[in-house]
Amino acid sequence: MTIKSYKGISPTIGEDVYIDDSAVMYGDIVIKKDASIWPLVAVRGDVNHVRIGERTNVQDGSVLHVTRTSEKFPKGFPLIIGDDVTVGHKCMLHGCILGNRILVGMGAIVMDGAVVQDDVFIGAGTVVPPNKVLESGYLYVGNPMVQKRKLSDSEVAFLKQSALNYVKLKDEYLAEA
User: Fold this and answer.
1) Three-state DSSP class for 75?
2) Which stretches are transmembrane (predicted)?
3) Global pTM value
4) Phi first, then psi: what are they for 169, rounded to 5°?
């Protein structure tokens, strides 16, 4: 894996984290306990910071980045991902905030300033425009995204289970290392 500092700040990796050898990470990144970063993921905390929560998994080919500070946006847009989040294959998360127990479907894009509350499904290929707020407990789909329907109790339970499935998988990979 490629883990590099940027302007003297290096990624901080928590306990029992799996990072695939092909992943690339630069700068101000914190990855918490039991998270996993899968093949060909790029995470750049160069012009702002990235935080990845416990038991969160970022799947193959995803790109995670931030937006620098500016006159219009004095704090810029960091990328903050909560606990028990599943980020599907080839997603783009850019300067947004994701709460806890979220599934971001394959190929989805979540843009600057968007806030995704807890317990949300974002469908595959969905585009979340800048500064949108996705309300807790719903499925969002489309380009641009629309709130489709309320999640069932079993779908909400699956959000946590999806994250736990990846904790088990990353533990199997760590055991073989």
Assistant:
1) coil
2) none
3) 0.97
4) -65, -45
In angstroms, what CA-CA distances link 73 with 48, 69, 76, 150? Answer: 12, 6, 5, 33
Between CA 172 and CA 157 the distance in angstroms is 23
121 touches 146 (CB < 8 A) = no
Residue 1 has pLDDT above 80, yes or no: no
* CATH code, domain with 154: 2.160.10.10
- Whole-number average pLDDT of the chain: 97
123 touches 104 (CB < 8 A): no
13 φ/ψ angles, rounded to the nearest 5 degrees:
-110, 125
What span, in angstroms and rounded, lies between the C-alpha atoms of 120 and 166? 18
Mean local confidence (pLDDT), 9-36: 97
Q: How many beta carbons lie within 10 A of that of residue 168, not counting itself?
A: 8
Tally the domains of the chain.
1
The whole domain housing 74 covers 2-176
Which residue in 164, 132, 149 sits closest to 55, CA to CA? 164
Residues linked to residue 135 through DSSP beta bridges, in sequence order: none
Cis amide bond preceding 78, omega within 30: no
What does the pLDDT look like over 121-172, one tens digit per residue? 999 999 999 999 999 999 999 999 999 999 999 999 999 999 999 999 999 9
Q: What is the pLDDT of residue 24?
A: 98
